[in-house]
Design brief:
Blueprint: E1 6-13, H1 20-33, E2 37-42, H2 57-67, E3 73-76, H3 78-82, H4 87-97, E4 101-108, H5 109-113, H6 121-127, E5 130-133, H7 139-143, H8 146-151, H9 158-162, E6 172-175, H10 184-190, H11 194-199, E7 207-208, E8 215-216
Parallel strand pairs: 1-2, 1-4, 2-3, 4-5, 5-6
Antiparallel strand pairs: 7-8
Helix pairs in contact: 4-6
Length: about 220
Amino acid sequence: MNRPAILTGLLGGSFNPAHGGHRRITLFAAEALGLDETWWLVSPGNPLKAQAGMAPLKARLLSARDQSRRARIVPTAIEAQLGTRYTVDTLAKLVRRYPKRRFVWLMGSDNLAQLHRWKDWRRIARTMPIAVIARPGYDGQAMASPAMAWLRRYRVPAASIRKRGQWSAPALVLLRFDPDHRSATAIRRAHAGWAEDTLGKDRTTPVRDRLTFRTIWSEGEA
């Protein structure tokens, strides 16, 4: 008897730093969609974000590990190993590398508002279902965005994912929950030295990526 595919959520981002809001939306989405686990894809660099103020990959990965404790959340810097810069390429490689998993791409409504700016965003939607999680102040922009105009026809209820039916992409799920106002930007403003504190005095200690078993050093060299 064939085992059912492992239903895995993917949440990408800089995690600069990871915080309780990331954890909360992940656990909420996992419950709503019936996910077995979620991978936090800690990005080596976001093409749509300035690199000024970006902490080393090791510090961001360590902050993600701290926030994911005792949860079915796996922080990983696998994009550094895959050598991908754009989400569309990362997702294509993950689907090929892990054929026994079924993936769902998780994003906040702030990202849906600008999804039309992402490289080959329609191909992203055709690769796996997309679940959009409400974020304060962005829902109006997201609902009026060019990407939403195209995706609206593919909207499905969360139950269609949770029941593990033979759903296929494109598929859009809109998830609403109590707003979480925490942000990495606010954390950086309040604690400019968070990365140094996370890395500690010994900046040479390596971190092992749980998916790739690759060593991540303090400056996050590829």
